[in-house]
Amino acid sequence: MTDRLSTRFAACKAQGRAALITFVTAGDPDVAATPAILDALVAGGADIIELGMPFTDPMADGPAIELANLRSLGSGTKTKDVFALAADFRTRHPETPLILMGYANPMLVRGSAWFADQCQAAGVDGVICVDIPPEEDAELGPALRAVGVHLVRLATPTTDAARLPTVLNGASGFLYHVAVAGITGKQQAAQANIEMALAKLKAATDLPIAVGFGVRTPEQAAAIGRIADGVVVGSAIVDIIGSHGDAAAPFVQEFVASLSAALATSIRETAA
Amino acid sequence: MTDTVTLPNSLRSQPDDNGHFGAFGGRYVAETLMPLILELEKVYKEAKADPAFDAEFAELLRTYVGRPNPLYYAERLTQALRAKAPAGKGAKIYLKREELNHTGAHKINNCIGQALLARRMGKKKVIAETGAGQHGVATATVAALFGMECKIFMGAKDVERQKPNVFRMKLLGAEVIPVHSGSSTLKDSMNDALRYWVSNVHDTFYIIGTAAGPHPYPELVRDFQSIIGKEARAQMLEAEGRLPDMLIAPVGGGSNAIGLFHPFLDDPEVAMIGVEAAGEGLDKKHAASLAGGVSGILHGNRTYLLQDEDGQITEAHSISAGLDYPGIGPEHSWLHEIGRVKYMPIKDDEALESFQTLSRLEGIIPALESAHAVAAAEQVAPTLDADKIIIVNLSGRGDKDIFTVADALGVEM
To answer: Distance between CA B111 and CA B352 in Å, rounded?
Structure first.
């Protein structure tokens, strides 16, 4: 299937580099400030945008993203605002893939069909739902697939060989490798462990594989970029927004540009 | 054609293989936790089939917890209610004395069971969330008993409101970690316990304190707590030669209630009332997930939750810290939807009144959680004939609550 995600991964691959995937929480610090921050991500060289849907109880997230969730909700962000931000982004950036990331309850509170329709209407390319494992796919997967929106699956250090086929069954868009058994923004995985995990994942799927959790610096991004199809950076960007608030966009752009530059010079080990 | 065979339709065979109680329950956790959850399910199935596991559990309940605890006829309470009831009305009230257990509540039953499972899985570290501190104390207790390292996550507000229990946990060798995230209460301590667990899955067992969370927790917590209903059933048959007409139990997550109810679910003549905390009233701040919530997903299960139209979780309120949670165990959501159990809201002030009534009439100071059930019994008993029998689950003792109650009554201690 040719779509924005596969096109973008293919383009990055053709340039011999990994895709830069950046995460921010929608409505952090407020809805008015988000478009400029999203534009800064793109201007800084992000290939794919992960937009977090704020939730009161983000239990897979560390303090940085948890605080971003609370800042967003505290400034009054509603689900309709998240979709409006996504739709506006799609108008400004027709080619840049946009992924919604969040938790099951805000996604499903009005039913999966409603959520899937909203995603499609807003031009959202994929969804990452932290607390819907493959075992509960029926809650969300069928509705998204029916409208051609990818449900991105996660593989973790605890996903062993016996379990991996379960994770891959129904996976689409790309596979998100959570590099550490833990929450976002905390520990950093050892490069050797990431390499070992990616070798196993690559043997099992043709989907592009992105690596996230604990990636905070251009150097780390470059190291992972040599072996993965995509590198996800979240908490480090969210920290910048936490420090600069409404005025964060230029600082975000500068940091993302440093990540992007590091990836561009980091030549991938496995040729196409 | 063969005749259609109608299988006995048991209400006690839930959940299904995927942990669903009707539309509720399930396993809504991060992928990192899934392998451990699946392993726990496997280990629990093996343990259930192992007579040695059951024997050790039963022996610890007998010699360490002090079971069986009595089923006590509360005669003075019964008479006092009859005096105010129409002629011939006023059901006979029995109390199931869970408050006499070691550590003062039903929580220990479950903690012993889960510690045995942790040991079976080779885990030497346990964590738990706690609201009032009862589950924290019970977990710290079994950790001491089994020689396990123990961390208790407790909302910073609750650490402040429940100082005696915090000190008890420390005495028992546990580390108490104050949780400052979110609203700093029970749900946030559960979030932080989950965050810790996902980062330490390799060596840590999470002892969840109520019949909620991802499958298989709701099932195994219920099974461990079912000792309450099994004992009550046998004790009632011995005392009255028949089953009770009604069971009443308080419901936060609902582990003591499901423990009492479950062995009676297939006895249609036994009515059941789960008592939710209505706080300041259902139109104000409360913790009644069934009366005031809708189905949603939080902390690993689909169940009724207090939430807004966007699915954001709203803060619960109850004078009882143990009921101060915006959700409820999934089996209760199912029993509510099929109508097998009726759920009734009781407000803070009603619970406070019954806290004092039971203390004065029976010489038993109930936990504020249990006082909600006593308040419900005080409302329901006078409407039933005098030959009817009610069992109220006195899930915990009230020593921990004397500061809260004194404060609410404006008494200086």
So the answer is: 28
Average pLDDT over residues B337-346: 98
- Nearest CA to B102 out of B57, B66, B146, B48 is that of B66
CA dist B52 and B67 (Å) reads: 19
Q: Note the residue count of chain A.
A: 272
How far, in Å, CA of A46 to CA of A231, rounded? 10
A104 with B297: Cβ contact below 8 A: yes
- Paired residues of A100 in beta bridges: A51, A127
Please state whether the peptide bond connecting residue A29 to the residue before it is cis, i.e. omega within 30 degrees of 0: yes
Write the Ramachandran bin of A267: left for phi over 0, alpha for psi from -120 to 50, otherwise beta: beta
Q: Nearest C-alpha of chain A: how many angstroms from B197?
A: 8
Closest CA–CA distance from residue B132 to any residue of chain A (Å)? 20
**pLDDT reported for residue A8:** 98
3-class state of residue B125 by DSSP? strand
Half-sphere exposure in the Cβ direction for A135 (13 Å, CA): 22
Banded pLDDT at B2 (limits 50, 70, 90): very low
pLDDT of residue A270: 53
Is B107 known to be catalytic? yes
Task: Tell me whether B408 touches chain A (CB under 8 Å).
Answer: no
The pLDDT assigned to A233 comes to: 97
The tens digit of pLDDT for each residue in B60-99 reads 999 999 999 999 999 999 999 999 999 999 999 999 999 9
- DSSP assignment, residue A7? H
Strands (E), B97-210: 125-130, 149-155, 175-179, 204-206
Per the annotation, the verdict on B395 as an active-site residue is yes
Residues contacting residue B204 through CB under 8 Å, at least 6 positions apart: B123, B125, B126, B127, B196, B197
CA atoms of B244 and B336, how far apart (whole Å): 20
Q: Which of B32, B35, B305 sits opposite A178 (nearest CB)?
A: B32
Check A131 against B202: CB less than 8 A apart: no
Q: What interface predicted TM-score (ipTM) does this complex get? A: 0.95
* pLDDT < 70 stretches in chain A: 1-2, 269-272
In A, what residues contact B, Cβ < 8 A? 55-63, 66, 70, 73, 78-79, 103-109, 130-133, 135-136, 139, 153-160, 163, 167, 178, 180-183, 186-187
Burial zone of B379 (CB within 10 Å; 0-12 exposed, 13-18 middle, 19+ buried): middle
Contact yes or no for B390/B248 (Cβ under 8 A):
yes
Which chain A residues are closer than 8 Å to B188 by Cβ? 57
What are the backbone angles phi and psi of residue A221, rounded to the nearest 5°? Answer: -60, -45
Check if the beta carbon of residue A61 is closer than 8 Å to that of residue A185: yes
Nearest to A126 by CA among A110, A109, A107: A107
Please tell me whether residue B126 adopts helix, strand or coil conformation.
strand
CB atoms A57 and B199 under 8 Å:
no
| Mean pLDDT value across residues B98-104 | 97
Task: Grade residue B335 by pLDDT with cuts at 50, 70 and 90.
Answer: very high
| C-alpha separations of A196 from A157, B126, B158, B226 in Å | 10, 30, 44, 46
Instruction: Please give, one letter per residue, the 3-state secondary structure of A36-85.
Output: HHHHHHHHHCCCEEEEECCCCCCCCCCHHHHHHHHHHHHCCCCHHHHHHH
pLDDT in tens, B303-313: 999 999 999 99
Residue B1: pLDDT above 60? no
Closest-approach residue (CA) in chain B for A102: B30
**Nearest CA distance, A92 vs chain B (angstrom):** 26
Average pLDDT, chain B: 95
